[in-house]
Specification:
The complex is a heterodimer of chains A (225) and B (474).
Chain A: E1 2-6, H1 10-22, E2 26-30, H2 33-42, E3 47-51, H3 59-68, E4 75-79, H4 84-92, E5 97-100, H5 105-119, E6 127-130, E7 133-136, E8 141-144, E9 147-149, H6 153-164, E10 170-171, H7 172-178, H8 190-202, E11 211-214, E12 218-221
Helix pairs in contact in A: 2-3
Chain B: H1 10-78, E1 82-87, E2 93-96, E3 104-108, E4 111-120, E5 123-135, E6 141-147, H2 149-199, H3 215-266, H4 273-301, E7 309-312, H5 313-330, E8 334-336, E9 344-347, H6 349-366, E10 372-380, E11 383-390, H7 422-432, E12 436-441, E13 446-453, H8 464-473
Parallel strand pairs in B: 8-10
Antiparallel strand pairs in B: 1-2, 1-6, 3-4, 4-5, 5-6, 7-9, 10-11, 11-13, 12-13
The chains are: A alpha/beta (225), B alpha+beta (474).
Chain lengths: 225, 474
């Protein structure tokens, strides 16, 4: 995947670029808004990571400009500002996701994967499958190995989100934001409790667990490779 | 029933009071003038009558009854305004310009008033006169009086017109009062409405100025200056939090990046990896504290006022309770939400959710297994109350206000995880929403209550005080 990184903190930029390259992406970088805009408009990218505060051209204006040119590539804002309204401003300006510094690299990677996945939806699915676990989005039912699993509505949404990102790391914050639509710090790791309940329902009694904990990052649903 | 709003304005009250004083003094002045004039006129009449009588008495003494009679005949023939009547002791008229002894109304001493008929052209009219009656030696009765019909008419005019004029004056005054109050109200309404919009978050708004340069304009100009300062301070506050956020987050970001980089380099199973993981965790804890502090600063600066929206508190309660439900289950705590209707308030949903989450998190954290946590919404006369009650150990009365301060953690909880900022954030969010936070004894346990004030009507100039009175009367 081709990724554009516009970040003026050079050390952060270096770290970001290295990390992304190591994860197998092709990365272009820019240290100010003007250069970022030129790159964004002259080349094709799958996703852009844009810092909110940039010299030359502010991140918000940069993205607004890109959007004005009809460019719809997914944009993830990075921001050292955590003002309550800031996320809203970022998303209004045309951003697709918003991550506050300092962030865990795993979080960033997971979000980028999700953004790119959103861009190329593998057709509209009514059925999700991971290993012998099936989720029917029309009848809202789940089955594993043919036997029905009884899920609460929220558990269903949680499982659906995990299965839509099967094989990808999904962080706790991503779950809180996407499944619960909350953008606040829940203090205790309440998400872990929800996951362990879900795990008890889908993995208990089966030899091969599907729902895995990824240390230092989050969770992943995946059939045994 | 309450009086219409216009009658409760200060302007109207002042006008009404002024009007009352004015009406009273006008009535007093007119009354005094009337009384004084009447007295003077009466005195004059009495004087004329007296001199008449003294000259008649002199006649009588010198010439006896015949002399008196001839004078009376003579005088009554030439005088219309003075009445004479001489009668015998049985009140039978002897001579004079009255046909019969009239009914006398005693006034004082031998002063009397009487009604009599006088021919004017072809018709007779009833007139009033004032005079004295005497008993002469020999039992004769003498009455001398002067016509006071004109004065009497004026007097009657006074007594009938005066109340009507007063009434008219009061009516006109009230009308004027209403007009003045209306003008006051329109301008006050404008100021109130704009201030409310400004308080709701739009700090760039200014009060409109009239053309007159009157007191209202002076008030508006002063308020506008104040608003300018407030806006500048708020912008300054925002700039400061922004730069603190930026200047601290950037190095924290690098620190975390580097730690992660090292971890990635040596691999998760290498010696020292767990130490680095712990360091990452510490960094995250630091970031958490920092974020909470920043959020408190933002909430306290009222920055989030701009993002207030009308939200059903019920939805927030259900959402957050659903999120924490499994956590309570895991600790074998019963989490109950008694049913309640919807409760729409203007708030920043993210901050209110965070505040509720903090309270609920605390409640679940400090309640032992088998306990009970209740989240309840209640419509009270003072507004909408959101209770989070638990059956844990509670907070001693003397510590309740202290726990709302930043970084304060009670001895009992010093070893459980937390930043010590949870309740401070709740307090800041509460202040942002003009709400109240109350910690009370749940017997046993702690009951935290957020009291959101009942929404005041947005576009009325009802002062806060009357709004509260309204509530109190409901």
């Amino acid at each position: 995947m081709r990724i554009l990184v516009v970040e003026d903190d050079l050390e952060a930029q270096r770290y970001l670029v290295n990390g992304l390259r190591e994860a197998g992406h092709v990365v272009d970088d820019a240290a100010d808004g003007e250069v970022g805009l030129t790159l964004a408009l002259s080349r094709q990218y799958d996703v852009a990571i844009v810092d909110r505060m940039l010299p030359g051209l502010d991140g918000l204006k940069l993205v607004a400009e890109i959007r004005e040119h009809g460019n719809t590539m997914p944009v993830l804002f990075l921001s050292a500002l955590s003002e309550i309204d800031d996320r809203v401003k970022g998303l209004k300006a045309g951003g697709d996701d918003y991550l506050t510094k300092p962030y865990a690299f795993a979080e960033l990677l997971a979000r980028i994967d999700a953004l790119m996945r959103r861009r190329h939806p593998a057709s509209v699915k009514t059925q999700l499958q991971v290993g012998d676990l099936e989720l029917d989005l029309l009848t809202r039912t789940a089955k594993r190995n043919g036997s029905a699993i009884d899920l609460q509505p929220r558990e269903f949404r949680l499982l659906e989100y995990l299965m839509r990102h099967a094989g990808q790391v999904v962080t706790r914050t991503m779950l809180l934001e996407s499944v619960w639509e909350y953008h606040f710090d829940p203090q205790t790791n309440v998400i872990d409790v929800h996951i362990s309940r879900l795990r008890a329902k889908i993995d208990k009694g089966f030899d091969a667990p599907l729902l895995h904990t990824v240390r230092g990052a989050g969770y992943m649903i995946r059939a045994r490779a | 029933m309450r009086a219409p709003r216009i009658l409760r304005t200060l302007a109207f009250r002042i006008v009404a009071l002024y009007l009352a004083i004015f009406a009273l003094s006008a009535a007093a002045i007119v009354g005094f003038t009337y009384w004084n004039t009447a007295r003077a006129l009466n005195a004059q009449t009495d004087q004329i009558v007296d001199s008449e009588i003294s000259s008649l008495a002199e006649r009588y003494q010198r010439f006896g009854l015949a002399g008196l009679t001839s004078v009376i005949v003579n005088r009554s023939a030439h005088s219309e305004a003075t009445l004479y009547l001489l009668a015998d002791s049985d009140k039978r008229p002897i001579v004079g310009n009255l046909d019969s002894w009239p009914n006398l109304v005693p006034i004082s001493g031998n002063i009397v008033e009487l009604d009599y008929e006088r021919r004017v052209g072809s018709r007779t009219e009833e007139r009033r006169a004032r005079g004295r009656q005497f008993t002469l030696t020999g039992g004769f009765l003498l009455l001398v009086a002067r016509d006071i019909a004109e004065r009497y008419q004026t007097e009657k005019l006074f007594t009938t017109t005066l109340p009507w004029s007063l009434l008219l004056m009061i009516l006109l005054g009230l009308l004027g009062g209403i007009l003045i109050s209306r003008n006051f109200l329109t301008r006050l309404d404008l100021i109130n409405r704009t201030s409310r919009e400004i308080m709701a978050g739009d700090l760039s708004r200014r009060l409109p100025l009239g053309r007159g340069g009157d007191e209202f304009d002076t008030l508006a100009i002063n308020l506008n200056r104040m608003l300018e300062r407030t806006e500048r301070l708020m912008r300054g506050m925002r700039d400061v939090t922004d730069s603190i956020a930026h200047d601290l987050r950037t190095p924290l970001n690098r620190l975390r990046n580097r730690l992660e980089g090292v971890l990635h380099m040596i691999g998760p199973d290498a010696a020292g990896a767990s130490e680095i993981e712990a360091a990452v965790e510490e960094t995250d804890h630091l970031i958490g504290t920092f974020n909470a502090l920043l959020l408190i600063a933002e909430a306290e600066a009222g920055v989030a006022r701009e993002s207030m929206e009308q939200v059903d508190l019920r939805g927030i309660v259900e959402g957050v309770a659903e999120l924490y439900g499994p956590l309570a289950d895991e600790k074998e705590i019963t989490l109950s939400i008694p049913p309640s209707g919807s409760a729409i308030i203007a708030c920043n949903p993210r901050l209110v959710s965070q505040a509720l989450a903090n309270l609920l998190d605390n409640a679940i954290k400090y309640t032992p297994a088998g306990g009970k946590v209740t989240v309840a919404l209640e419509h009270t006369p003072a507004g909408i109350a959101l209770h989070v009650a638990d059956s844990g150990p509670g907070i001693p009365k003397e510590d309740r206000s202290r726990v709302l301060e930043r970084f304060v953690r009670l001895e009992a909880s010093r070893h459980s995880p937390g930043t010590g900022l949870g309740l401070s954030l709740v307090a800041a969010v509460v202040r942002l929403h003009d709400a109240k936070l109350e910690l009370s004894d749940n017997r046993p346990g702690l009951r935290a209550t957020l009291l959101f004030p009942a929404p005041t009507r947005r576009h009325s100039a009802l002062p806060q005080m009357t709004a509260q009175k309204l509530i109190a009367h409901n």
